């Protein structure tokens, strides 16, 4: 199984919509890894994490078959991570995708996410072959029919109902999706220290900015990784990745590589594939 990083940008993407700053101009010129769509992740064919305004672009770029999705986990209600209107097309009938598979799509999210879903609903929910699963932000978990376990913990973000995920595959491979969080609070460290991660995807949104809370700066990522190593939460062979980069962080992909790679951390990019599972690891 693989984790596909569908998007690696923050809310305004990169080059940012409506922006002509130096970073965005260079990103336009460079293209490639400097072209970042809104952050989202695909876990195999059936599981998706976040479904924002670039979901259609991701479908086209990576040939994703959303009709096969069974589980949609939304990290938080911000619009770059969840476009509730799109969910209306998951309807069964002549005007919708009549070819929808018989299985249902379960939308997993906190109350704030599900409220947004309901507000964006213009179709008859009973025809949508969807189920809603309200997640408590404090360390709860769900085990899916394929044995994959999602546990969730409160993110340090700008809104209520924002969560990070600890995901454990049936073979024990354990990874963390922690984009859209500032520095971890002590209560989060208490949970993290009970885990030994094989892979962690950390928030690197704020780059060179000097902020505290909501997102991490590049310096805060290094501090976080130092503590993760010190507490044995990650080991030498743990793959460490940063993601969700904003133009205002002031770093192009080349800058991110220069900054992070010497510390054993990889900056993500759109289309990055991370092999999962004890056997598949490279
Ligand atoms: Zn975001
Ligand atoms: Zn810009
Ligand atoms: Zn956010």
Radius of gyration: 18 Å
Helix percent reads 10-25%
Mean pLDDT: 94
Strand order of the largest sheet: 6-5-4-3-2-1-14
Put the structure in a nutshell.
The protein has helices at residues 22-30, 55-62, 111-119, 186-192, 218-230, 253-260, and strands at 2-7, 40-43, 47-49, 71-73, 105-109, 130-134, 140-143, 149-154, 163-168, 174-178, 197-203, 234-243, 265-267, 272-275.
Explain this structure.
The chain is an alpha/beta fold. The protein has a single domain (2-275), classed as 4-Layer Sandwich (Metallo-beta-lactamase, Chain A). It has six helices and 14 strands. β11 (197-203), α5 (218-230) and β12 form a beta-alpha-beta unit. One zinc ion binds next to loops.
Secondary-structure map with pairings?
Layout: E1 2-7, H1 22-30, E2 40-43, E3 47-49, H2 55-62, E4 71-73, E5 105-109, H3 111-119, E6 130-134, E7 140-143, E8 149-154, E9 163-168, E10 174-178, H4 186-192, E11 197-203, H5 218-230, E12 234-243, H6 253-260, E13 265-267, E14 272-275
Parallel strand pairs: 3-4, 4-5, 5-6, 10-11, 11-12, 12-13
Antiparallel strand pairs: 1-2, 1-14, 2-3, 7-8, 8-9, 9-10
The chain binds zinc ion (3 copies).
One zinc ion binds next to helix 1.
């Amino acid at each position: 199984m693989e984790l596909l990083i569908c998007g690696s940008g923050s809310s305004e993407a990169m080059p940012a919509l409506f922006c002509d700053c130096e970073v965005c101009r260079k990103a336009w010129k460079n293209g490639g890894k400097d072209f970042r769509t809104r952050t989202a992740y695909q876990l195999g064919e059936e599981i998706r994490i976040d479904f924002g305004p670039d979901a259609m672009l991701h479908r086209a770029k990576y040939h994703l078959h959303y009709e096969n999705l069974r589980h949609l986990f939304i990290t938080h209600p911000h619009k770059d991570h969840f476009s509730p209107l799109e969910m209306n097309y998951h309807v069964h009938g002549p005007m919708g995708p009549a070819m929808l598979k018989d299985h249902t799509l379960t939308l997993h999210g906190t109350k704030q996410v599900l409220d947004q879903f309901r507000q964006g609903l213009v179709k008859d929910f009973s025809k949508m072959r969807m189920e809603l699963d309200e997640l408590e932000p404090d360390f709860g978990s769900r085990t899916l029919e394929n044995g994959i376990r999602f546990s969730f913990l409160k993110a340090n973000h700008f809104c209520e109902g924002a969560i990070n995920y600890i995901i454990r595959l049936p073979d024990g491979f354990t990874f963390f999706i922690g984009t859209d969080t500032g520095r971890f609070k002590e209560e989060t460290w208490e949970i993290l220290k009970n885990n030994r991660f094989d892979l962690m995807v950390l928030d690197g949104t704020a780059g060179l900015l000097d902020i505290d809370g909501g997102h991490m700066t590049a310096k805060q990522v290094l501090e976080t990784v130092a503590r993760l190593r010190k507490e044995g939460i990650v080991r030498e062979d743990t793959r460490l990745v940063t993601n969700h980069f904003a133009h205002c962080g002031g770093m192009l992909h080349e800058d991110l590589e220069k900054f992070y790679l010497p510390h054993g951390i990889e900056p993500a990019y759109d289309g990055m594939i991370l092999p999962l599972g004890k056997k598949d690891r490279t």
